[in-house]
Amino acid sequence: MNCREEPFLLTGLAEDSGGRFLRLPERVIKNTRPELAWLAGHTSGVRLRFRTNSPYIALNATVPSVDLMCHMPLTGSSGFDVYAGRSFEMFLAPATISTLNFEKLGYFNSPADSEGFRDITVNFPLYNRVERLAVGLDKNSILLPPKKTKYGKVVFYGSSITQGGVASRPGNNYANILAKNLDFELINLGFSGNAFGDSDIVDYIASIPMAAFVMDYDFNARSLEELKSTHEPMYRKIRLKQPDVPIIMMTNPVPDLYK
Question: Do 13 and 108 lie in a common domain?
Fold first, then answer.
């Protein structure tokens, strides 16, 4: 089954993504820096959600390429992982850098609810692009839309830390952990090495209807002066557009970095 078809629900994607797995709209990608345009295709924070009484799940994925990172396993950069509720079930990842199509079947270990259903989340790769994902379930099973999350969209803007750098698999990225445990819809706008408070990205963020916003990009600031020139303007622009949205500022834990 095509993961884009109902009742599957894909979240974490830009609404105007031209049918591709993109974290920024095509209109933004066309006008932003090339580095951001490239990273917008990395599927960090993209999640596939649904309910089913199938005893197993099978996934078949296709990616355009696989890059071997010296500090991050393929299970995190190019892999998917599956949760039933809050319980980790399995991961799917390419075996080598030449493996562009890969698949896996796994039976669920966690117990179903009283009606025999499980709430399934498939987390997409943190540092790669995805061309296709197909889902297989028992032919006699029932497929339902996912339950609505307790909270709406929470937007994270940040560096490689936010994108999920060096996480062993997608579900171990801190933003995915929070989304799972606090039950909100995740929008991950972490851009590895490229979170500079770009005005076009800030404008896009300000346009997203959200329940909360997390600013976590201090690490990419190349100087204290640069951070001063972007941090407060970002806050003010988003606050002007969304006066009631909680804004969480996560600061750099290394106090001597800018000295």
Answer: yes
